[in-house]
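As a point of orientation, let us examine one representative protein, giving the amino acid sequence and backbone structure tokens.
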Amino acid sequence: MNQQDHSHWDTEQSSELYGIKRWGNSYFGLSTDGKVTANTLNTEVALLDIVEGMVERDLQMPVLLRIENILDAQIMRLNEAFRRSIKMLGYQGQYRGVYPIKVNQQAQIIEEIAAFGARYQHGFEVGSKPEMIAALSTLEEPGSLIICNGYKDQEFIELGLQAIKLGFRCFFVIETPTELPIIIERSKVLNIEPTIGVRIKMTTKVSGHWKPTSSDRSVFGLSATQLIDIVDTLKQEDMLHCLQLLHCHLGSQIPNIQEIRNGVVEACRYYADLVKEGAALSHIDLGGGLAVDYTGAQNNDDQSRNYSLDEYCEDLVDTLKHTLDEYNIPHPTIITESGRATVAYTSVLLFNILETTTFEPTNLPEPTADEHPLLIKLREIKGYLTPNRVQECYNDAHYYRDEVRELFKRGQVNLREQSIAENRFFDALHRIKDLLNDMEHTPQDLEGLKLSLADIYYGNFSLFQSLPDIWAIDQLFPIMPIHRLNEEPTRQAVIADITCDCDGKIDRFIDGHQVAQTLPLHPLKVGEEYYLGVFLVGAYQETLGDLHNLFGDTNVVSVRLNSDGSFDFAKEIHGDTIADVLSYVEYHPKEMQLRYRNTAERAVKEGRITARDRQQMIKTFNASMQGYTYYEKED
């Protein structure tokens, strides 16, 4: 069939193929002309239109696109879902959300959460002094929550005490017993009464990638014995009334709602007994755990979840209400630290494909009278290839191809003959692959055949800088073309980045309820860019990225969608220059320019270049220092 005939293919098939309705959370969809759209405010905007706007503003690929409306919508959805559950179930407390800054510390994200979240008094969780400074300089709404986790020294505690005096609701969550004496001492010196929380070491175990953060071996939290020591110390200091929050954290990205409910029941037992001890508890912080369904499978796999946002909220509220009602304890303010679910959807990594490598025959000449016997053997494989002999043909193809390679090494076969052998080898393997598609059972040796014949699409990005979790923890992100989705994607491919590293590739993709080794993509068109998007990358990826091969931060664009279908470029940040990333690793760009100038001047004196050559070389060198670290296409 002619590859240009796509009349049998439509966008619904693309939608099903890439699963956009399953993982898009209603924020992403497809237009009738085959483009991925961002959807908020009852309108849709094609990502390709935004890309064209980027190009006009000299923002080259790769680009991290942030859609501010989606971040706002997630904050609203979370708070409103808890409000509905509280009202429906008759819960007497309220909900207060906090965003853990560590999930994505970028100023644009933090500022938007503070601005939009002010209507809900949505606060921040901080785990370090820099994060505390970010929170204090961004929050404006009096009464906003600041949850202080992590190790806290004297300066950290002083900042928190001053935050209390400024009108913020700042809790010091004690993670280790050594923190309490510092809190007591500094509060007395500054004459500011602290509000204290305690983090308990949960015994409830959860599934998912981050399950080690739960159970007895967790590195966080207080044991029962340490908790009693904290209570006794506060009693001795006449400060037990300062203990107003219980904190527990089961783990990040918890896929199973039943495990979350079990953890809440355990937390309630601690809460009830601390109240009996005399603690003035009024807040319960259930930590993070609200999962993002990266795969859209809606199950309890590590990268999915078997519950909706409404179910999550209802189960937390219902479990707290019924468990604490048994102890006749007033309902506390519910706090959650949903970071991943808040920011994941807001960011999309966009990049263009630079070129492809294919593993298929490109030159199959007619046989000649003096053709080498091994080439004849390779050509004859197709004559006896049948479903019953696929293993034999596979073995023969490898044997004859390897024999030709050995003869080439010894000079008994020339380069042209080796080229013919390689092409006939690929011809045989593709014929075998086509047969396997109709066979019920695939021989074990042939299970990796499709992957070995997959195209390589070279993307203009660094996996280590922009998608480190793919390399580090086998994270799956939805990946798909952002246009041409009214055409059938006829190629199967893996994606390589432009780093000089064999790990800089993506060969695990979302495929319904399974993981696929290849991604369906479209063949490239001459003179036309082909753009891919990696979705749900707003959590952790920017923070964890590194400078592998000295590829720096990408260009960043924040857009705001309008109800009339238009969009505004709210913010734009040009990515790191070469000079920037060199300075990060202790080079001094001005000194480098001077040394290069001296090298060029020496070449003039030695007669190897002219003075005019020198000037052009220095001009090119200096211009490159201010250039983008990624592949730049000339106009």
Observations:
- The chain has four domains: 91-338, 347-357+452-578, 373-450, 588-625.
- The radius of gyration is 30 Å.
- The mean pLDDT is 94.
